[in-house]
Each structure stands twice: as structure tokens, then as C-alpha cells.
Write a structure and sequence with these properties.
Layout lengths: L5 H4 L8 H14 L1 H8 L15 E6 L7 H10 L3 E6 L6 H4 L1 H14 L1
């Protein structure tokens, strides 16, 4: 299975990074077509996020072509005790594109909760 849309998941600076593209393709193959389609078409509408009552960290990227900043902001507004952190120079695949920044963001947030 070739995942051409993997390119859409990456920040524009990474769209020709063959290692990242290969990793996304391998994840898609290991996940399987049915699960990939299910995940890709998930609707986040109507999820009762306000039922989450613990500190919550929402991490987003301004350059995510799959999930918008507006969606991240809506989550933060709907979840009590939620915080928003933005990872720069990344698309949707933050763990692949900015793993150190992601880890730093989480580690810094944990003591603040």
C-alpha cells in the first residue's frame, strides 16, 4: 500500500524526507487499510470532551494539514483544566518531525499539573 497522503502529514520542510515518508508508509502498512481508513475519517464532532476532569495537554502544530489549530483551541475550551502547546516546524506527525521538542513540551508540562 502506498500512502501518498503521507506527504500531507508532514511539514513542508519535510515533504521530501525519505526516512519520514518511509516511516509513515510502514506505519500505514502495519496498521492495515481498514484501520487507516477508519482513523483517517474519524469525526471529532459530538465527543463529550467536557467529561474529562483531569489536567489535559493538547499539543498541536500550526502547519498540520490534517487537524487545524481551531480544532485544538476548541478542545482546550471544552476540556476543563486543559492547556495548549504548539510545536513549530512540524506537520501532523509531531513525534517523527519534532521528537525532542515534543518530549521537552511534555516533560515541562507534567510538573505544572
Amino acid at each position: 500500500m502506498e500512502l501518498k497522503q503521507g506527504y500531507l502529514q508532514l511539514h513542508p520542510l519535510n515533504t521530501s524526507n525519505q526516512d519520514m515518508i518511509s516511516a509513515i508508509q510502514k506505519m500505514g502498512c502495519s496498521l492495515g487499510f481498514e484501520a487507516f481508513i477508519t482513523q483517517s475519517s474519524l469525526s471529532r464532532q459530538g465527543i463529550p470532551s467536557a467529561t474529562i476532569c483531569c489536567p489535559t495537554l493538547v499539543i498541536a502544530s500550526e502547519d498540520d494539514a490534517i487537524r487545524s489549530m481551531k480544532e485544538a483551541e476548541e478542545l482546550v475550551e471544552a476540556i476543563p483544566y486543559a492547556s495548549l502547546r504548539i510545536i513549530r516546524d512540524s506537520g501532523h506527525m509531531i513525534p517523527l518531525e519534532q521528537p525532542r521538542e515534543l518530549a521537552r513540551t511534555i516533560v515541562e508540562w507534567i510538573p505544572a499539573t
